[in-house]
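Hi P.,

Sorry for the delay on this. The queue was packed all week, but I finally got your sequence through. Input first:
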Amino acid sequence: MEHSNPILMGNDSPQKFITIGEVMLRLTPPNYEKIRMASSFEASYGGSEANIALALANLGVDSTFFSVVPNNSLGKSAVRMLRSNDVHCTPMILSTKEETPTHRLGTYYLETGYGIRPSKVIYDRMHSAITEYDLTKVDLDELFDGFDWLHLSGITPALNKKLCGFHPALPARAAKEKGLTVSFDGNFRSTLWSWEEARDYCTQCLPYVDVLFGIEPYHLWKDDEDHSKGDWKDGVPLQPSYEQEDEIFQHFIDRYPNLKCIARHVRYVHSGSENSLKAFMWYEGHTFSSPSSTPSTFWTASAAATSFASGLIYAMMHDYKPMDMVNFAVASSAIKHTPSTATPTLPTTSRASAT
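Then the structure:
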């Protein structure tokens, strides 16, 4: 399908991108209020994969989002928001009540933290349209036709594990057979499934992945025959040293030589509203580490991880040098902390490049 993005200003997008996931209504109390005390909520739309599609579209990439939303005012409003940000929604399914009996759009409530009070998220996404729709009816070969890059996450299978026909390994494998670059983010959500379930599912995707975000939730056994010997990642802190991260990356590459890039961003929390960021990335045989960003007062951390992912995807599409890739990704994440909406804010490449 032919697409047009006015942000390209006459230049062609180097690659055509597609991602699969859920878009949700986000309700947030204004002015850092707590949910239990709020008398009003600000409405916007978001979701991990939708945020990545939107961020890349804002950077001028030909970006498409596939999901299922109910054919009602809420579902149409979510599609309108995506289209207003130059995300192509042609493949999206607006389901009927027969196809998705509960006929609802997933919702989440975000209570923005401040100072010593952390942010809080409450999900209300059970029986949303994408969890009830029979995704096995989707023709993956047709869906991926004409695209160059597919991004997946562990959230979609967690939403409805009964949809075995749409296990993430299947779209990843179908995309690889068509020659697409496949990126994957495990994106563990404890409210959707257990840690072991997530590890079991997401590990099956790794043989088909080119670009991996994060080092969890995946099994990386020291001995596949004797799991009592533990996982190579056991004991690695949330804020690892360069040497610790490099060792873990090497174990991933030894086990999955198909991986072309592994990246993770690390957050240093100084308070509920002040963070600094850095990242590690394995690429072309070497591990790179970005400088830590200056501690800054951030408005919200919502969608910051997806902005990191979209920043790295953009940099890889445009053949940035390795250090520029990881720095651009961190800068993209840092910029995302500044607005109060779930929508990623990546208005210019020059701003994000100033690392």
